[in-house]
Write a structure and sequence with these properties.
Layout: H1 2-17, H2 20-39, H3 43-46, H4 50-74, H5 79-84, H6 86-91, H7 97-130, H8 136-166, H9 170-199, H10 206-214, H11 217-227, H12 230-236, H13 239-244, H14 249-272
Length: 276
């Protein structure tokens, strides 16, 4: 455990030195505060709580932004170290390869968690200071959104590590990371929508659709945040979808956790057999 913490600490210090932590935190905070202030403007006329507006807005933003940040942080975590020759030096110490990979992942995941919690938390503090009478259920949904956002970031960080162990140069790793982002964030849902429209309910039943949505961590995240809490689903217009989703919030979180564990385990397996 001490070895993992040392390696994770090194990654966090590198993130601070490269301004990754500061830049990511400021970006998340700026966008979250902007959405919080803009989203609270119409609530007086439509009777919607400002926190629900913020949750829906931030959930949509997170699906596009956080996976990209995570992949940019992690795509060269392994191949970049190999190219610079520092991986050979690191492995000359009495440390296992899985410890190197897991320690680096923990450091990058900590950067994502810190930036997300502080950035999105700033929006929550601003709303708490400016609005009164926000229900406890809304705060639970907001906290769940932050926690699931960290899991989503960790999932794409793990996929970035997998890409970094599969290739031999940073350029290829960067291209693969972009492909992962495009595939999961943009192309998958477009293809799924086309499939549903073309099928017209013959083969793609509600159960099949649920499983297809779970095959994408971004969709799993969206389902959790937009259908897991009644007050949020009513505002987001997904109350009807929530009635057909036969998956509990705990199950959706478990699937997100699996999207963290599976790519990281595969990356560790590949890295342990890679010749450096």
């Amino acid at each position: 455990m001490n070895t993992l913490l040392i390696i994770a600490g090194k990654e966090i210090r590198d993130g601070l030195r490269n301004r990754w932590v500061v830049a990511t935190t400021l970006l998340m905070a700026a966008l979250a505060l902007t959405l919080a202030f803009l989203g609270s403007a119409p609530t007086g006329t439509v009777g919607v709580g400002p926190l629900e507006v913020t949750i829906v807005s931030l959930s949509s933003l997170t699906i596009f932004l956080l996976p990209l940040i995570a992949l940019l942080l992690s795509f060269d975590a392994v191949v970049g170290e190999i190219d610079r020759g520092t991986m050979t030096l690191l492995l000359s110490y009495p440390v296992a390869r899985w410890q190197v990979l897991l320690g680096k992942f923990l450091g990058h995941a900590a950067i994502i968690a810190f930036a997300t919690t502080l950035g999105y938390g700033a929006a929550g503090v601003a709303l708490a200071a400016g609005e009164g009478g926000i229900a406890a259920e809304s705060w639970r949904a907001f906290a769940a959104m932050i926690g699931s956002s960290i899991l989503l970031g960790a999932a794409f960080t793990a996929m970035g590590y997998l890409a970094s162990t599969l290739v031999r140069d940073r350029g290829t790793a960067a291209g693969l990371a972009v492909g992962i982002w495009l595939g999961f964030v943009l192309l998958y849902d477009m293809g799924l929508l086309g499939l549903v429209v073309a099928d017209q309910g013959r083969s793609v039943t509600a159960d099949v659709l649920n499983w297809l949505l779970l095959a994408n961590p971004a969709d799993t995240y969206r389902l959790f945040n937009l259908t897991g809490f009644q007050n949020v689903s009513l505002f987001a217009g997904t109350a009807g979808l929530a009635a057909h989703v036969q998956l509990s919030p705990a199950t959706l979180l478990a699937v997100l956790a699996a999207w963290v564990a599976a790519p990281l385990a595969l990356a560790s397996f590949i890295f342990s057999r890679r010749q450096i």
